[in-house]
Amino acid sequence: MSYLVNEALLRLIKPVIALVLAVILYWVLTGPLGEAGSAVLFLACWISSAALILLLETGVI
Questions:
Q1: Confidence of residue 61 (pLDDT cuts 50, 70, 90)
Q2: What is the pLDDT of residue 52?
Q3: Which residues in 8-18 are b (16+ Cβ under 10 Å) and which e?
Q4: Cβ(27)–Cβ(54) under 8 Å?
């Protein structure tokens, strides 16, 4: 049973890291860079951070 819990936690780490990166990117865009905040901007930040995680995980080549 502990293997199932460990597997579930490992699978939840990537979305949480993507969410944290998205919040940081959203804060940078809306704070210092002065972009108007919106839900679409946050979703774009979340998708781009998830894509970055996938690229870092699999490698470019």
A1: low
A2: 92
A3: eeeeeeeeeeb
A4: no
